[in-house]
Amino acid sequence: MGDVERYIGVAERRARLALRHRLAGPARARDPEEVAASLVALHGTDPATVYLAVAARLADPASTVPETSRALYEDRTLVRMHGMRHTVFVFPTELTAVVHASTGLAVAARERTALLKHMASAGAPDAVWLKEVEESTLAALARLGQATAAELAKEEPRLREQFVYAAGKGYEGVHTVSTRLLKVLGVEGKVVRGRPRGSWTSSQFRWAVAPAHPELDPAEAQASLLTRWLTACGPATEADLKWWTGWRVTEVRRALSAIGARQVSLDEGVGHVVAGDVDPVAEPAEPWAALLPALDPTAMGWQQRDWYLAPELRPALFDGSGNVGPTVWWNGRVVGGWAQRPDGEIVWRILDTEGVGRDAEAAIAAEAERLRGWVGTTRVTPRFRTPVEKELGA
């Protein structure tokens, strides 16, 4: 990777973020596919996050819901599947093979081993039985096109079988085969989340057979994924890369070497960018504001976040598990939080007033109105609630 080439300061990192994450006005995207390609992955744990994250980056958000639904469920140019850190994301479909080989295979092996271990300890049927149920389930899903777990259980009744998990322990529970098996099939890249049963905010998903993809060499896939992510999010430290991918540090270093990444100096220490991305990046011509949703990929993009989020703001804006809530941005940094009230009003609070004057407040108000305009009568409550969001949304 060579010597450290130059220092990249906070101002330039924020400029890169504004442009590459489609947040500054002139950089906004035309459609959901362009947004997803720019960010590599959209957090999909909370279904509403996908739509809110897309809308915040579209030049015209009015068509967010139909266009994002089209991409996910009709054209299938976007796919919701398990990815890094065993988290559900929405990826461009052409990335599914890369994600599966680079991050999914290792997680899948652990998940299947854990399921078989838990079933064996509970006296449940063995691996041969589970394989039969799996094959029958996939065949049923292929026939049905999309189906919920309950609908699949009508085709394959053995999915209703239950077993006791961690018997005699404080966290003992009863697991259903369908829940655990579909999860395993998801991380193995055999099934993906399909159309929800309700609106775009619903978390009750159908399942669908995963789109066919080639089997890639894991090391080559890791190099490919790292190239895409560093292009969108570089510079980043080794700690950022290890956290985002969920890989071992040896895998991160191997991938950095494979792509010929360049080293730069950051306030946190040594950072990395892709080859050819060392030159300075100018700030956007105009200041910008954004209201980003809970779990937004920009707010959650780095492990080391002090360059865009002051540490003193974290207790108000994150839940106890480290999930970020809705955030207000001004010129590349988080300055507050926002929420939607039961009557549909979008409200916000500035927590960091440095540099936030009348122009900033007017821009933030315009973004709030922009958001209210396309959300309409839909009410959005984050799946993981944070102190500021709960207070504002009351």
Notes on the protein architecture:
This is Winged helix DNA-binding domain-containing protein. GO terms for molecular function: DNA binding. InterPro entries: AlkZ-like. Keywords: DNA-binding. The protein has 394 residues and is of the alpha+beta class. The chain has two domains: 1-41 and 216-394, no CATH class; 94-209, no CATH class. Helices cover 42% and strands 18% of the residues. It is built from 14 helices and 16 strands. It has helices spanning 10-20, 32-39, 47-55, 64-74, 96-121, 127-144, 149-155, 177-187, 218-233, 238-245, 249-258, 314-317, 358-375, 387-393, and strands at residues 4-7, 42-43, 78-82, 88-92, 146-147, 162-165, 173-176, 191-196, 205-209, 236-237, 262-266, 269-273, 289-292, 327-330, 333-340, 346-350. It has a four-stranded mixed sheet with strand order 1-11-12-10. Helix 5 (96-121) packs across helix 9 (218-233) and helix 9 (218-233) crosses helix 11.
